[in-house]
Amino acid sequence: MTRNLFQRALRISFHSGFMLSLAALPVNVVHAQNAPVNARMEHGRYLAVAGDCLACHTAADGKPFAGGLDLKTPFGIITTSNITSDKETGIGNWTFQQFDDAVRHGKGPNGHLYPAMPYTAYSQITDADIADLWEYIRTLPPVNHKVESNKLPFPYNIRTLLVFWNLLFFKDAAFVPDNSKSAEINRGAYLVQSLGHCGTCHTPKNALGGDTKDTFQGASLQGWFAPDLTNNAHTGLGQWTADDIVTYLRSGTNRYTAASGPMTEAIVNSTQHLTDADLQAIAAYFKSLPPRTVSPPQPLPASNAQVTAGQRDFMVECSACHRSSGAGISNMIPDLRNNPAVKAQNPDSLLNIVLKGTEGPATLANPTGAAMPGFGWKLQDEQIANVLTYIRNSWGNAAPALSAADVSKARAAINAQPAVPR
Amino acid sequence: MRRRDALKGGLVLLATSTLASIYKPAYSKTLVGGSGAWKAQPPPPLSVVDSSRLVYLTQDEAKLVGTVFDVLIPADELGMGATEAGCVTFLDHQLAGPFGSAAKDYKLGPVVEGTPQQGPQSIATPAEIYRKGLAELNTVTRKKFDKAFPDLSEDQKVAFLEGMEAGTIQFETVKAKDFFTLLLQNVREGYLADPMYGGNRDMVGWKLVGFPGAVYDYRDWIVSKRGKKIDVQPVSLLRTT
Amino acid sequence: MHYKRPKADVVIVGLGWAGSTMAEELTRAGLNVVAIERGAWRDTSTSFPTTRNPDELSGSIRKDILQAPVTETYTVRNRPGETALPLRKYHNLTLGNNVGGAGTHWAGASWRWQSFDHQPYSRVMERYGAKQLVDGLILQDWGASYHDLEPFYDRFEKIAGTSGTAGVINGVKQPGGNPFEDSRTSPYPTPALERTRANILFSEATTRMGYSPFPVPSAMIGGPYTNALGINLAPCTYCGYCQLYGCGNWSKSSPNICILPVLMQRPNFTVVTESEVVRINTTADKKMATGVTFVDSDGNIGEQPADIVITATFTLDNTRLLLLSGISTPYDVNTGQGVVGRAFTFQTLSWAFMFFENEYLNPFMNTGALATQIDDFNGDNFDHTGLGFIGGAGIQSLCNQGLPIGMSGLVPEGSPRWGKGWKKAFQKSYQNYAQIQGQGTNFAHREQFMDLDPTYKDRFGQPLLRITYDYNENDRRSGRFIRDKCVEIAKEMGAREIKGVSLADDPYSGYTPWDSSHVQGGVVMGEDPRTSVQNRYQQNWDVPNLFVIGASSFPNNAGYNPTVAVGATTLWTAKAIKDLYLKNPGPLVRL
């Protein structure tokens, strides 16, 4: 009875590369899927991870890829579709052409897709990659799960309006390499701009949700500020080396910081599973971007009343983890000194993290998952404004002060708990 | 619940959060590795007790126990007395909660007395002991001094409590000595626990001894203040005073 | 409802230090492991946030983190023939009530035990002979020596991130460390913590007296550290909320911080929480374990079949589970035969409590194990000839207490306990109180044992475990000897008022203030099936696919805390399962 245990252990450990497969697969896919059977399917699976398809096409506690996740947009709720091979409720009857139309061109069987599906980025996927992706997606085990995808109110429920949106904001064109740059940078650009769809969050949007020309300069999205990814040392990735970027995307942490908010999920589900070469390429691409041209403001003086009051609260509430020097702990607790996230003009992420806390990134490379607890229930608006004003103007940081009204507004906007009465 | 703060397609998306699920009681769970972060149910936010009304004690009981508390921790030049510091409010709320009902105790029988080292065998709860003990307190002092406890002179009050403490004064419904132990334990707790529990007003107990309060980091002081007096205004968890 | 879970390769009962350490080893080896834990899931960031942790009332006083006696308790008596009665209120044995077990709320003293502690019988016979043993004393070797265990001590320290100053590395004495420690292969993973004023006074006094003070190794992390499993730990902040608290900022080693984040990533690991295992199931001939039966929090009865059963519950519950399951022979005090419940030990504590005249000891800056110790009178580090006992104690200046409710009773003898006089005395003593603990060895005796209580039952109607225990003459003698040493040091430290106490002078009670929470034995490992339940690999002599791990395997207690020894023996057994048992399932020791 127990004899076969050893053989099993051996088989799992060595023959099928147990640790290796753990490192290479998104963990929540391991159970759900049959192992890909050929190289193209395997490559397609990798592309699906790079595109993070699972994240949106799986409902909370739902079956993988069976859809049903409600995406809340400023225009209403869009529910993600079932992309398993179920013939009735999924895409089991689709042809490759239909798949390609949907993913790269934003056209579904019922008309135009809403750009909640990032076809604006996926349009740049190469012909070979989209074919491999289909090889994988079409084999997803069928799950019968009917999803009503469009719950938008009038007039946003009229799909034909998207013709005009696409005319304005959608460039339906394949990725064009820049021959003046290295192959590595071009590979990075391809991953970032197509499957990685980084600009979806990090590029500022106009009033109708279309990309502006300020690519990767940071954007505010429902309570979070997706930071500047350009090489600006004050607000962007200027201080980070390529290795810092790789470490961050692999582990969720690096010597300066730890991921928070939606980026945590992007790392856990997607980037941690990319190959070293691809992460290096992504880093090389970002390091090749020109810095955004902004000049840092002057910090508030230490004598500022908010700074003084904030320091006291920082010492009581924050220093246990971030240390009184603000230095934090490498690969675990963000260093608040000279930190672009702290001095971002837009304080949405800071407010969100302080009010609601944020889960720590738990990855195979760094399973720690040290989270920040929420302070919304504990601290009053004024205290939070003071603490943030203090950290935004200490240790080399400089950024505008925050007021109690700012905190109050953020509390309402992100549905954070009120401070307990006292 | 799996968290999906997903942001897609130039349209802005917010996670569906089921706030109702956050504070439901724990139950047996099966957690499988690799299925996403396993998160415990967050504990409910701390809160400040409502001192505007009594929740367990009657008005008379509250007044009486306050008189006893003020003998145990009187007002003097070192700080306010127990009642002013909120120790009765503290006790009232403690008795209304799991402490008062001895909710954590093993209460199955048979209930028999053992050796002292076998520990307390009574299954009477603190709430019951206070109710009976306070009722009997005045009865016993009336028998002994012809006065209710609050009407005794300070010296008489002290002598009476010393008798309870030493076991020379007996009650019928509760053990006077055990009741005294409970009174002393609870008044100290009320005087020194975080003010959110109703006592330690203005952090008087912490100021008495120089305890900095709800502080979670002494790295800057462990060497620099070694053996030295630290003058610091204490802090409470919710900054209540 | 009754239900049966899918069969696992391994079922582990209890997910504290021992269970999670074992689970990490076996899942890494590719086995499918299911752990069943009575408590709820707890993770550091959600359950012990710094935003609410510094609260003495809910922590040290109401003990919210502990498993409550209403869930399960023990009955106690001092000697056979007495009627045992239940511990009805929170008592000195501090069981965990969550995933992580007592390892979540422990104080954090992180000791390797000495060679002597693993082979006390051989060492005593060699140096003194049988005449050194008081009547009725049970003394036996473990079957695994310090030399066997050293690699596993080393590994466990690197999982825990233990802070300390090494005393002997590869046979070479190191400055500032414990000169009596057995040789280590590597230094402590993180440096020793800073010392308090009281620690320094102790250090200076003992140095003047010719002893060798050193920092007690601690679970409080001495600097940023990435552990052997790739998990990051943060440096300790000296906040003082360690014992009876979960650490909120990742700076006290615990299963929750050091191991569980890795297990959470492994698809071949499952934990079923809030489910209490009530029985180990066996084949009809009791030759093989087939799994366990548990009751979940909805009252459903579940079964978890498995090829290997490992129980890693609280020490005493390991014994209870074997007795409830009818596995191996229960100890019979009348005949001295039988093994389950035999060789039960506690800890022998001695103290010097002292008050200085004009100090600012700032007791609130502390950790659960912030202590400076001398080992000159521990184990067999000194000549016992003519003393009439074996063993001794680690003597330490322990700074683990600064919270005001807990200190409100610490005023010099004769001071008022209430009234204006108490306020004045408390104000002064708060800054002037210090303590020296003699944490002593404790040896088993034929009249110290555990069995099932004939009267009292748990919430499911199963008998409670009955403890029959009092100190034996060996422990009383060593306790007094150590108490006198503590007092001598306190005098040398310059204290104004000193009180020495040997707790073994009074009958054992589960409620004695200042007493230990350490209990050992009942399912001991050893070399002879007549005196041990398990062989040197913690494998049951009768049921070869059953391994009972934890301090229940230790036939004696050292003058140290047991956690790291539990970690080391667990890793030792894990290796035996992986390297020996899986290849050739069956008894690993044949007689």
UniProtKB/TrEMBL annotation, chain B:
Q: Which InterPro entries match?
A: Gluconate_2DH_su3
Q: What is this protein called?
A: Gluconate 2-dehydrogenase
From TrEMBL, chain C:
TM region(s), chain numbering: none
What Pfam family is a match, any one? GMC_oxred_N
Q: Which SUPFAM superfamilies does the record match to this protein?
A: FAD-linked reductases, C-terminal domain, FAD/NAD(P)-binding domain
Q: Name one GO molecular function term.
A: oxidoreductase activity, acting on CH-OH group of donors
Keyword list (alphabetical) reads: FAD, Flavoprotein, Oxidoreductase
Q: Which family does it belong to?
A: Belongs to the GMC oxidoreductase family.
Q: Which PANTHER family would you find in this protein's record?
A: LONG-CHAIN-ALCOHOL OXIDASE (PTHR46056:SF12)
What is the official name of this protein in its record? Answer: GMC family oxidoreductase
Give the originating organism. Acetobacter malorum
